[in-house]
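Input:
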Amino acid sequence: LAKTTQPISMDSYEGQEVNITCSHNNIATNDYITWYQQFPSQGPRFIIQGYKTKVTNEVASLFIPADRKSSTLSLPRVSLSDTAVYYCLVAPSGGYQKVTFGTGTKLQVIP
Amino acid sequence: NAGVTQTPKFQVLKTGQSMTLQCAQDMNHEYMSWYRQDPGMGLRLIHYSVGAGITDQGEVPNGYNVSRSTTEDFPLRLLSAAPSQTSVYFCASKAQQLGNTIYFGEGSWLTVV
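Output:
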């Protein structure tokens, strides 16, 4: 499993766009990049997944450069309810490898 | 859809007691796993299973046992509870062939006194 590095914490004001970057220098050819969101006292939930370039859904966008050694989760116009821990996961799509999480990034949205 | 169901949600144990945290999923997922999360910390993998009859250790397996007799169920057993096992436990599952979308249960809060 590729090792990932994320900032431990970030602060943002309401209404701003937030970008959280994850470094994964040893990403493998068959690895996908997946982001999860965890609210206090809840299990993580899937936000978005991508392999290369850009992926967008109703919640977020995921930007992946050509070398795939990093990825950026973009949250548009955050609100207080976006305060959570965000985890970057790099692993093959499918397969039988164990899934381990890094420390995540704690995002605090400020009024 | 029930998804991943964990029981109990809250439990208080005395040091040395044993107990089992139950986990069931109704999505026919091959992969199931248990994580623990200490206050303010990330998720640490305890044990995982890639199918019925197959289990393996994660990052922090000591003090815990698992078995996988059916696709649906993956119980976690604490053999002799210790205060260091006070934590929130999350069960998770995913389909092997459908990417990395992992489904988590709601968590089980365990306090060992």
